[in-house]
Amino acid sequence: MDTALKQQFGSDNYAGICPEVMQAMNDANQGHAASYGDDVYTQKACDSLRSLFGTDCEVFFVFNGTAANALALSGLCQGHNSIICQQQAHIDVDECGAPEFFTHGAKMLSAIGEGGKLTPADVTRLANVDADNFHSHKPKVLSLTQSTECGTVYSIEELKALTATARELGLHTHMDGARFANAVVSLGCEPADITWRAGIDVLCFGGTKNGLGIGEAVIFFNRSLAEEFAWRVKRAGQMCSKMRMLASQWSGVLEGEVWRKNASHANDMATRLAKGLAAFDGVTLNYPVQVNAVFVNLPDKTKTDMHDKGWHFYDFPGAGSRLMCAWDTLPETVDAFLEDLKGCLPQP
Length: 348
Ligand SMILES: *Cc1c(COP(=O)(O)O)cnc(C)c1O
What we know:
Blueprint: H1 19-28, H2 40-53, E1 58-62, H3 65-76, E2 81-86, H4 90-93, H5 98-102, E3 107-111, H6 120-127, E4 138-145, H7 156-168, E5 172-177, H8 180-187, E6 202-206, E7 216-220, H9 229-235, H10 243-254, H11 258-278, E8 284-285, E9 293-297, H12 300-308, E10 314-316, E11 320-324, H13 331-344
Parallel strand pairs: 2-3, 2-4, 4-5, 5-6
Antiparallel strand pairs: 1-7, 6-7, 8-9, 9-11, 10-11
This protein binds pyridoxal-5'-phosphate (PLP).
Pyridoxal-5'-phosphate is lined by residues 64-66, 90, 145, 149, 176, 178, 208.
């Protein structure tokens, strides 16, 4: 019996595990290996990440993005501090207060940030509190999401301007890179160009949405901020004992640059979808399509009819319906969606 759900645009984490990752896990599934990361597979994945970024960074593996972000932030600030982010930031609205919990209550300061992006002026304005006065709170971190919650991408110049502002204000810089790979291939740059070379202290590198089954990497370019991070990971229940199974998945996407292939494919499918959508009368896109997300305005009746036809996708307040493409989205799925949509749009 075929129980598989047909391909959907609900999220990029609807997709399964890519074959290269399955193979890498299978290759690591040989005999015994030391636990908690003291094994050759974990060593190899860490070394591959260091060589990908071209720097001697500290690497940690955790199970999911919420933990990666919350723990990274807990290493950058304390409860009396504040964290600057964009209004739709996952850390502020999608993590059930985990960053506040693990930082022991750091305050989130957010700005609207058009198109998902903060500007240096936003950062300066939000950080303009009486930080020397202990009655206030002390801004300590700038958190940027790359690619953004709106499916847009910060350019290298935009990032450099933001981190320069952060540096002047004495803020550490965190990047939520749940869709980091999609941003790198969109910009046609190297991972280093939008991280440490652009002034980022710590990156949460998303694996799950790129084709892993489970796992995100927390990468400290500023190594002094990684002090005692392993203790934080363990205390949060995020330390994998059979670490080779988490780490080998990374080797599956790092070898042969599969991460680039997966991200490019997802981005290309979003472009195909966006082109098809834009060709329909009365259908408008809310943001430029720069990665694997398309935000589209559809009539309510059309949405209901599409859901009735079995298509899964979600509405985001003020941003329209979000259609996400994944590493395995087939062009035929995009075309079938567009064909069904044609029949569900109001007839002129
Ligand atoms: C998916 C996502 C995460 C990670 O979410 P988890 O469900 O905790 O793995 C983090 N940040 C952004 C922007 C995301 O889209």
